Amino acid sequence: MIFLKSKIKYQLIFIWLIFLTVAFIFFGRILGNFFVSDDFHWLQLSQETQWSWRFFLTNYEGGNLGGSYNPLLLVIFKIFYAGFGLKYFCYHLASIVLQATNAFLVYVLARQLFHSFELKQFKNWSFLAGFLFLIWPTQVESVAWVSAWPHLWMTLFYLCSLTVYFYFHQMRRWPILVLSILFFIIALLIKEVAISLPLVILIWEIYFFSVAQRNQVSDKKKPKFFLFYLLILLFFMIGRYQSTGLLFGYYAQAHFELSIIGWIGNLAGYINELVSVGHWRGLFFKLEYYYLDSVVIMFLTILSLYFFYLFTKFKWFQFTLLVSLFFSLGPVMALMLHRFTFSGERYLYLPAVFFVLWLIFLLARIKLADKLKLALMAIIFFSCFIIIQQKISIWQESSRLSQQIVESYADLNLSAGQELISVGLPDNLSGAEVFRNNLQQALEFYYPANHPQIKPLPVYTQLSLDNINTSLLKWRQDALGWFAESINGGYVVTGQTSIVFNEVYFELWNYNYQNYTANVIRLIPKEELKDKIINQEVYWLTFDQGRLKLVN
Question: What does pTM read for this prediction?
């Protein structure tokens, strides 16, 4: 905004205030949500990590083996924790403001691009692009879950870098380029998925250069400045490798593995998610599970036909928007969405920028009466509102359950330091996180003088709104160990099929590989641990009827 005239600045501030108001209308219900799952991990890191330049020399946990490289994300969390502690309202307030600001930046970006295309009424269509990004239903996880902050903050600086770069493209003033590069560095140091920005800049520079060449402009600006961004990216990758030992790996997979068919299947899943806002996810992943090759062939066929149409009709603007979308999806191609809930939609937060621009551009160019377009947009906006409220209701329920679980610990009347082994804690509620991880950290915050010592087992219950307050597992013991079985035979258990973890060998029986669920947990502790459990020196800690429970 420093490059703009005063009148335009006031107009932009007014538009940002509109987006902020709408953000509170759509997402305001999350302000009272309690922390869940990984939130407590970030809070603990914020509390225990000392301020140091070593943030930039280690992974986010302070080590040098694996993990993610997010030094500035830790800085952001530490600042908020120092200012607000455990006041979850303030964290959610920041999420809503970030969502509104990112939508505003999408508006600015759309205005730049649509104006370059000389789109009629480009200001109106740009406003609709920002508005649609603001309320697109795949944004809910990123806004409602504090641990999804890296996507919100990274996208903020990613868009700042990109929009400022386009100002540089017009004005050719070096301080503007330096500012754009600075924003890019900040985005990288918050979340690694910002690595797609140099390629996005390159494809747009190629587009602008080709347009200038086609229009026989004498002062054609060659696409060379993206090389500065590639150089920054190279230094970042070196620093990341020194800090984590990972070059192309990530927190869930230490070594780079190229799986072309699987990646294309994931890409098809992401596109399906953006288009259907999650409604076709279950159907898509059923088809992918049984017919992966056919799904990939069909997806590539549709994509090839669309690209062929764009090439033959010289629709280079659409082509560039679509390629930008694919570039932004590149860093998450190895990751999968949850097959039957909306979990994982945070991976689509940044790609939604280019998807929304592409969608609005198509709507602007399609030959329909203006009244029909307005009616179509009204239907889309209303549908988005309904879907978002449904998802937020689930997040509200998951946060209520998280708080109820933490409060229920007091009813167990345990002494400080009591050893517990957690089994069957709720992983998620229809996609909204609950306590897959970090119950220990949560209890340390809220029971500092009386918290237990929990050894977690990576086996969980998967909840829905129908079973949230019911008994899910019945326990029995035999000579080797224990069984925890689904009371009604339903597949309510999720986790790995079998593993030795924290001195316990466990198996999940009747495992459904399609959705990673089972209905029986087999637990076989080592002899010494089994004796401690039998003698009630160590207890099984589980989840029952919405509360923590000790297994007798």
Answer: 0.93
